[in-house]
């Protein structure tokens, strides 16, 4: 791995170590830089890093889930020649067509099930899709998105995740689908309110 990559990882790890709030030794709250207030300069480094890790893949679209993934995916898209970003909607309004791909996901942080939807007009058999999301824990969101995408004829180029918690089974579930998975900060455990990185 080249020096730049290690630097990007360190930047993200330092941010998690210094700014994340740990709740009950299981929830990592990163809303002050990742999914409520957004650190755009960090997002730029994240975009560069995903481009580096998926450099050998052709990507025509980036797909994510609302809402936390949208900002990250939008910045990442700039490093893939400004490809369109499509996000799966959790709350489809009346203006959304009924012609959709959909899948169910369970949110452990919100303790509820959602049906995510993407309009069929935004996914074609020519698309090579890179999935981008903020977190990987149980894998419910990513697997739901993969299941949704598998209903279309797109090719999944890979999945990029900003923060992964390895002490939940998400990674294995994604790898079993045969998809390249790249996580930028991998957390092995949380002990006494401290994040332990892999």
Automatic annotation (TrEMBL):
UniProt: xanthine binding residues: 35, 165
GO MF term set: xanthine phosphoribosyltransferase activity
Cell location: Cytoplasm
Keywords: Cytoplasm, Glycosyltransferase, Purine salvage, Transferase
One Pfam assignment: Pribosyltran
Primary subcellular site in the record, as a coarse category: cytoplasm
GO cellular component: cytoplasm
The UniProt record lists the keyword Cytoplasm: yes
GO BP of this protein: purine ribonucleoside salvage; xanthine metabolic process; XMP salvage
Top EC group: transferase
SUPFAM superfamilies attached to this UniProt entry: PRTase-like
Pathway(s) served: Purine metabolism; XMP biosynthesis via salvage pathway; XMP from xanthine: step 1/1
EC number(s) recorded for this UniProt protein: 2.4.2.22
Organism superkingdom: Bacteria
Domain named Phosphoribosyltransferase: residues: 51-173
Catalytic activity field: XMP + diphosphate = xanthine + 5-phospho-alpha-D-ribose 1-diphosphate
Binding site for 5-phospho-alpha-D-ribose 1-diphosphate: 137-141
Function text: Converts the preformed base xanthine, a product of nucleic acid breakdown, to xanthosine 5'-monophosphate (XMP), so it can be reused for RNA or DNA synthesis.
NCBIfam families: PRK09219.1, XPRTase
Quaternary state and interactors: Homodimer.
Recorded family membership: Belongs to the purine/pyrimidine phosphoribosyltransferase family. Xpt subfamily.
Name of the protein described by the UniProt record: Xanthine phosphoribosyltransferase
Protein source organism: Desulfosporosinus acididurans
